Amino acid sequence: MNGPLAAMTDNSVRAPGWVLAVAAFAVAVVVLLVCYWQTVQSLVWVWDHDGSYQYAFLIFPLSLWVAFDLRHPLWANPPVPSVWGLAAVAMLVFVWYAGHLLDVNLVQHFAFVALFPALVLACWGWRALWVLAFPLGYLVVFAVPWGDALVGPLQDFTAHFAVRALELTGTPVLLNGREIITPLAVWMVADACSGVKFFFACT
Fold first, then answer.
1. Are residues 161 and 137 in the same domain?
2. Same domain, 55 and 122
3. Domain match, 161 and 77 both
4. What does the buried/exposed string (b/e) look like for 169-197 if buried means 16 or more CB atoms within 10 Å of the residue's CB?
5. Which of 36, 101, 169, 198 is the most buried (most CB within 10 A)?
6. How far is 162 from 151, CA to CA, in rounded Å?
7. pTM
8. Lowest mean pLDDT among 41-45, 175-179, 187-191
C-alpha cells in the first residue's frame, strides 16, 4: 500500500506499552501538582504580577502543543522507563526542599518545572526524553522566572560596556561598583538599565 493513506497508517502506529506509560505519567503529574501546589501558586503569581514574565502563561500550552505534534515519533518505539529518571526526581525534590528551607523562590520554581523532564525520563525513558528535548527544554528555560537572577550580572555588563565606550571617546571615567563617575556627572546603573525586559522580549 502506497501513497498518503499508507503514510497516515504508518504514522498512526503506536508501539505497545504507551497507554499504561501515559497513564502513569498523568498520575505522576497530578501528584506533582498536588504536592507542590504552593509552588505552582507562587510561580503563577510571579507571572501575573511582573510584566517581564506574563508571556510565561503561554509556555506550558505551547510546550504541550509541540510535544503533542511529536507524538508519532514518540510512539514509534515502546517506552522504556529509566531508573535515572527516578534519581533525577529524587535529586530535584531535594533541590526544591533546599530552596524551601532557604526561602529561595527561584530554586523552588526551577526544581518544580524541571521535574517534568525528569518524570518523562522516569516514565518513558531516554528516547522519549530525546524526542521531546525541544518542548521540555523550552519549558525549563522560559517558564522559570530567571530574570531577577540576571539583573545583577546584566547591570554589571551595562556598566562596564558604558565605561569602555566613554574611554574610547577619551572621556575620563571611573567605575565604582555600578556607579559611573566622570568629571561632569555621576550615573548609577539602575535595575531598569539591565535590559532584562528587552532580553526576554527578544527571546
1. no
2. yes
3. no
4. eeeebebeebebeeeeeeeebeeebbbbe
5. 36
6. 16
7. 0.70
8. 187-191
Q: Is the pLDDT of residue 7 over 50?
A: no
User: 96: which 3 cell numbers?
Assistant: 526544591
Residues 64-77 pLDDT 10s:
999 999 999 999 99
**Residue 192 belongs to domain spanning:** 149-202
* Pick from 31-35, 87-91, 111-115, 155-159: least confident: 155-159
C-alpha cell of residue 12: 498512526
Same domain, yes or no: 29 and 115: yes
Per-residue pLDDT tens over the stretch 141-158? 888 887 665 556 666 666
Residue 187: closest CA among 161, 159, 165, 157: 159
Q: Are residues 62 and 139 in the same domain?
A: yes
DSSP 68-102: HHTHHHHHTS-----HHHHHHHHHHHHHHHHHHHH
Number of domains in the chain: 2
- 154 and 174 assigned to the same domain: yes
Do 127 and 79 lie in one domain? The reply is: yes
